[in-house]
Amino acid sequence: MPDPVLPPVPGLPVRDPRSWAAAQDLEASFLSEMLASAGLGTVPEAFGGGAGEAQFASFLREQQARAIVAAGGIGLAEQIYQSLLEKPR
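Structure for Chemotaxis protein chel, as requested:
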């Protein structure tokens, strides 16, 4: 389902799309690794899906992490985005 097209809200800052996408990608990568560390995608040995399941579990985790970021994430993307905008000292 496409996002509704709404006019920009006056007074809200406009985000740089490339920097915001990079920040979201980094948050998704972080969440994917955290989901892997938490054991998401591992199945009990009795019902294991074989080598194929192990190979594709990372793709599932990556998409789940991207879904978390799309739903608002944990706020990491905003912090990364703000640090990308800071001028080097």
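The radius of gyration is 17 Å.
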